[in-house]
Amino acid sequence: MDQREQARRLSELYDEVLGGVQIPGAPRALVAASWERSLAAAVDPELDQPPLVVDHEMVETLRENHPLRAVLPVLRQTLTTIADEASHIMIITDAQGMILWREGSAEVKRQADRIALSEGAVWSEDQIGTNGMGTALAVGEPVQIHSAEHLVRRIHAWTCAAAPVHDPDTGKLLGAVDVSGPLRTVHPAMVALVTAAAQLAEGQLKVRMAAADEMLRARNMRHLTALGDAPGALLTPSGRVLAVQPLEWLPDRLVVPDGADRIDLGDGREGLVERLDEGYLLHMPGARVRRSRPSLQLKLLGSGQPTAIVGGREIALTLRRAEVLALLLLHPSGLTAEQLMLQLYGDEGNPTTVRAEMHRLRNLLGSGVLDTKPYRIIADVTGDVTQVQTALREGNLHTALSLYAGPLLARSDAPALRLERDELDATIRRSALDTRSPDVLWQFAQTPTGAEDLEIFESLAAVLPTDDPRHAAVAARLARLVD
User: Fold this and answer.
1) pTM above 0.90?
2) pLDDT in tens, 396-428
3) Which is nearest to 175 in space by CA: 58, 63, 32, 250?
4) Where is the OmpR/PhoB-type domain (predicted)?
5) CB atoms < 10 A from the CB of 437, how many?
């Protein structure tokens, strides 16, 4: 059945059903349920246009503060060009069905204006009856509404497909993504297209949420650390658990009522909540019990076997485990499984692989060394790479060179560690060259990085006195490097 024939048949069914004729199987269940909701809300099938339209100033205010504003670029990239070429328009609504953005074919926008399919109009089911946006918001899943499936007769010349977009933090409905067009332009891939766009938008929101979580942890971890070893947690403003101590004693989310200073933890315990500038600090009532933390020393520089020393016990590390510990050392506020995955593998990774490796690593190192929400080192930790970085920041180049045994995990191809390695090598090399000091340059020349550096030996040859015993060795090395 072609589109025109389908529209004609739907129009006949529409007249028959609304006229009180019982027709088995028509309309389809999704549409029948939507008609019932719309009619129960007193929507008139002969309505001329949506009864609720807000002014431009109000639309601008709502746009400015709406979460979907942040993902407009990905929605435009996914939908606008296709909509324009196919004589459609792309529409984005808020959770109440108000159209916040509309883009696409200029001619179709002019046609849409005639039925108030434009910014500021509310296209919820209880305002304008069955339609793509309103019905997708009502049922919480992608839908396509074709021709006379719309409750309001004036919209029968249109077809629309829409998909809801949810907040990855709270799961709440944020709005809907819709592609609408005249009946003649309908395409069977419309539902798949808007579904993919909604999923991309949710993915982008999840990435932004992870970045915000990392910033919140970095700025507020000191409040949790200040509890010593007493049980506590750092929560987001929505109650999601970002970090805990001790290990794994809370669910992923807690309900924090407005103004509450005590909350039920769901297992018979009660916690105290303290409002921070961003998020909450949760701790347990009662005296704090301080326990000594195990010590962890990491040796990650140079060409030798990377090692971890836990309470005097030396443990040889595989490259992957050394990479994980290096990243946690360099990010003391912690990383999620997804963040570790990206830093270890790039876009090709799998968080499940990271979680499995973390489980094995925690068993290897023992209790009290690693935490899980997020993954972070909770032992008293020192590491050669961070000691070198600290010495360089403080301008203590001799100390930095004495600790610098070579590149950071030279065999690692992890994207984040390659950047850290290159930055550290470049910083210490540049610092040595800038001193023009024979002793400093010689000290750097004894490291694996400096030993093959032509510019280092050229600088040494230029500044070493000819009677210096090191001069002959420098000349010989320089000749080999130039050859």
Assistant:
1) no
2) 898 999 999 999 999 999 889 999 999 999 999
3) 63
4) 312-377
5) 16
